[in-house]
Amino acid sequence: MNFDFATVMVVAVVITGALWALDVWLWRPKRRQAAERLKQQGVEEKVITNTIKEPVLVEYARSFFPVILAVLVLRSFLVEPFRIPSGSMMPTLLSGDFILVNKFAYGIRLPVVNTKIIELDQPERGDVVVFRYPEDPSVDYIKRVVGLPGDTISYFGKQIYVNGELAKQTSLGPYIATGEGGYMTGADLRLEQLDAVEHKILVVKGRPSKEGEYVVPEGHYFVMGDNRDNSNDSRVWGFVPDENLVGRAFMIWMNWDGVQDRVSWERIGTIID
């Protein structure tokens, strides 16, 4: 079962907020009234203090509510961290990278229900996006946007054609991998240009690729991994609906090299192109 952090946070906000509100509007006035009656009866101060004291559960709710609310707002509307679990976006992203995702880049959405309430920008060709996997929306994927609504995308001979125009590629020689990406050492490292975005990709010469021509429907996007011969992407399962978009990846804030069991300090702060 996948852990739905947003749902847990929303439930926590509702429960802690409700407890705090009930105390402010209902329980606290009753405690004060009871304390006042005891005071008029001449009861000792210690008993009165204990009567008016807020319950431990309410105290915890009052303390945690603003913290949980702040985290929920931050993660839902501003920035959310993600961990890269595989090498499908090598060499741009490595397994073990921890990235930050801009949650408002493509519009403001309500948490849990994911309904867009404010329209902002649309994905551009070359953006690295996080989205809910169309075949299992409980799973988050990350890929690069190649095709926009209405585009015809072709992939033949390990090269992309956008509306019949070849996306320029320049060979940079064999790839020298590090960390958990060691299995890709020797792959062909190339510099590819999608509109104004230049980024590096990996291809394995001689390995069969999923090829074909795809017409992107309105309200959908065609995405691919930068590790072209090791990516489960739109060539396999189709297009990403706009409502599945989570946000645009923009920075690596940490990397854990699982092979050497260390932090890769050189990757911290890397901007994702």
UniProtKB/TrEMBL annotation:
Transmembrane segments: 6-27, 60-78
Topology of the protein relative to the lipid bilayer: Multi-pass membrane protein
Biological process, per Gene Ontology: signal peptide processing
Catalysed reactions, as listed in the record: Cleavage of hydrophobic, N-terminal signal or leader sequences from secreted and periplasmic proteins
Catalytic residue positions: 88, 143
Pfam families in the cross-refs: Peptidase_S26 (PF10502)
Domain Peptidase S26: 58-254
E.C. designation(s): 3.4.21.89
Family recorded in the similarity comment: Belongs to the peptidase S26 family.
Listed name of the protein: Signal peptidase I
Organism: Candidatus Tenderia electrophaga
